[in-house]
Amino acid sequence: MKRFWIPAIFVFVFVFPFKQAYSVVHKIVISAPINQIQVEYVNRAMDIAEAGQSNLVLIVLNTPGGLADAMEQIISRLLTSKVPVCVYVYPPGGRAASAGFFILVSADIAAMAPGTRAGAAHPIMAIGGVIPIEEPQERKEKEEGKEEDAKKGGTQTSILMQKVKQDVLAYLRAIAQRRGRNSDACEKAVTESKSYSDDEALKQNIIDLVAVSEQDLLNKLEGREVKMLSSETKVLHVANQPIIEVKKTFREKALEFITNPNIAFLLFVVGALLIYVEVTHAGMVLPGVVGAILLLLAIMGFSFLPISVTGVLLILLAIGLLIAEVFVQSFGLLGVAGIVCLALGAIMLVDLPEKELRIDPFLAVGTAVGVGGILLFLLAIAVRAFRRKPVTGMEGIVGQVGEALSDIAPEGQVFLAGTYWSAVSQKPIPKGSKVRCVNIKGLTLEVEAVSENVPSSS
């Protein structure tokens, strides 16, 4: 019996306290626009936390917003989590705007750091990703207060925006009510594009608490009861617990890097230039290989972003205009038009209204001017080389001057370009005269006499 009790006591005394002491909090850091890369990261991290029976999943959030589809996928994963989830807007100065606001509201526990803000979640549509489409009906109601004018402003765009807005409101309302938050205050972030500071969000019951740091947050959550959507209630024991950050994989980091619109655009531009260099200087190999790789990376990056057809067409038109400038004497008008089209195409390329999610206009203009100048320079060199008279091979002999080694009447021999040739002439040429090659027929040169002041090639 002693042999049985000793192992049993060992298990109960050492193993179970060991397990409890090493319960952990898993941390997910979202500090980029909400897109499919963040969805992949959050899903993987949540799976790790659930498999490790984590006490809490802490999502540290700082985002300008992002794609609605990606946002909904992240929220869906949080709502079905088997582990309590706390979304914490951090660091001070950070924000949970647009899609980030929805993610904040959807968490079991919503928290913010001092000096952060959340909100500004009004849905926006755009023409070519640049010009926000306002709601004519609401604008007229506010400015004029006349129902008739408001009805006149009800275009199909207004109807579409109303549908989008109502769907977003219903989605937000359902989440806020489920989490016991102030749905009216949450809706104002959509209807009025209202943004809340940490104190305002706490007073309006949009968030649960304000904490100055992650450890302060865990201390305030100690002993807190969390009612999961599965109706299960869990008590948090997270004070002084170790925080394990689930790092992004190399693939996720690389995709996050190239899905940055500015990076993807630069990869596209540099890749296109290198491909052009390879085409105009066949045999260099390296520019073609590197250019193809950069273009593929750019295409992959753009595949995660909503791309405007208008932007793509403007970029293609810009390339056509820059090429045409070399062949058409437009005094630079086509070149300037090409640069303008390239800049506009870059600005409109990513079809998102938030400026943080689009290509920087200054980068677009600077790149357009630089690329336009480089392309025009390379094209001019290529055209000049194409039009230049050959200086090697059989064609390069035409125009060179040599010496008649015998009388040419009409046939004879000449010494030209370091070689002895058979030659013919329409007019007799005496031996020792200077001759110029005017044509080649097979291995026979057609020559003519030149004056004595022309230097010989021998």
Structural class: alpha/beta
The general outline is: elongated
Q: What would CATH call the homologous superfamily of the largest domain?
A: 2-enoyl-CoA Hydratase, Chain A, domain 1
Give the strand tally. 18
Mean pLDDT: 79
What fraction of residues sit in β-strands?
15-25%
Characteristics:
elongated, 16% strand, 458 residues, disordered C terminus, alpha/beta, 2-enoyl-CoA Hydratase, Chain A, domain 1, 16 helices, six-stranded parallel beta sheet
Task: Give a brief outline of the structure.
With about 450 residues, this protein is an alpha/beta fold.
Q: Would you give an account of this structure?
A:
This protein has 458 residues and is α/β, with parallel strands linked by helices. It folds into four domains: 22-121 and 193-253, 2-enoyl-CoA Hydratase, Chain A, domain 1 (Alpha-Beta Complex), CATH 3.90.226.10; 125-191, no CATH class; 259-387, no CATH class; 395-449, Beta Barrel (OB fold (Dihydrolipoamide Acetyltransferase, E2P)), CATH 2.40.50.140. Helices cover 49% and strands 16% of the residues. It has helices spanning 2-21, 36-51, 68-79, 99-106, 136-143, 147-152, 156-178, 183-191, 198-203, 214-221, 250-258, 261-280, 286-303, 309-327, 333-349, 361-387; strands at 25-30, 56-61, 85-89, 95-97, 109-112, 117-119, 126-127, 131-132, 195-197, 209-210, 225-227, 233-235, 243-245, 401-404, 411-416, 419-424, 434-441, 444-449. The protein has a six-stranded parallel beta sheet, sandwiched between helices. Strands 14-15-16-18-17 form a five-stranded mixed barrel. Helix 3 (68-79) runs parallel beside helix 4 (99-106), helix 14 packs antiparallel against helix 15 and helix 15 crosses helix 16 (361-387). The relative contact order is 0.08. Mean pLDDT is 79; it is low at 9-22, 125-154 and 453-458.
